[in-house]
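Hi Q.,

Before the meeting this afternoon, I wanted you to have the N-oxalylglycine prediction in hand. No need to reply - just skim if you have a minute. The sequence and ligand are here:
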Amino acid sequence: MTITIRPIDPSFAAEVSDIDLRAPLTAPAVAAIEAAMDRYAVLVFHDQPVTDEQQMAFTLGFGSIEHAQGGNITRADEYRLQDGMIDVSNLDQSGRPFDRNDRRRMFNLGNRLWHSDSSYRAVPARYSLLSARTPAGRGGDTEFADMRAAYEALDDEMRALIEDLVCEHSLLYSRGSMGFSGFSEAEREAFRPVRQRLVRVHPVTGRRSLYLSSHIGTIVGWPVPEARDLVRDLTEHATQRRFVYAHRWRHYDLVMWDNRQTMHRVRRFDESQPRDMRRTTVAGDAMTVAQEQVLSREVPGGRDGQ
Ligand code: OGA
Ligand code: MN
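Predicted structure with the ligand bound:
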């Protein structure tokens, strides 16, 4: 069976069918999905009742798995899922929704801010794969913004201004912006800011994109308020409805996105009910600050300098 890829009108995402994610991945399927990811950046797979093991096996077809350590405040002994799985549900170890004041709930509220996964890591994530084991009863859509289209809609003056800018990203900034505080010394150490280019070049297509995230706290060499003003302005621009695909979850949907070319956020939902969402993440392979910007817009083509 050959897989079918159908763009989701009118946005940038696509739906993939005629594939069973529980079955071993074939090389042609990997190639077709990667090509579709390069083009559409967000892929939706419906009716995929995967187990954690099957989700991890499918994920490994695209690279190595990024682990949760350093990305949250949940202690190892509090973790509900096995190593390799990222728990973005609202559930504690016994499967009950977090209490209103639970520190883990507060921290997870940061997913409601536009972000790119693990942009706070020196080598940030490539793909994320999110499986809806139990979607929210009400609300809880996940929205995706196309950062290539957003970049391409900027005028020449803005493109020139931002071309070589480098931002500092940290969970301390995104959580701090929501008023979350009281980080321990160990957390501060784990969440030390890292540097990322503001403009990325896709290693295969050569398309540029804005690398924005709520984890950004400043721009290297800029006064902080001026940096935050520009980042806020660009974020507002990049998240206009015309650049956004909103995904309404169905049971056993799996959505896969390219963190190098998109931002995402989850919307409000009924937190008295379980929302069991499980993520796997394909690790990136290089630091964005090592990317050579000399690759020009006119020369699309393979490059692994990302
Ligand atoms: C994520 C994330 C949003 C959601 O898994 O990285 O931001 O819809 N999740 O839960
Ligand atoms: Mn996320």
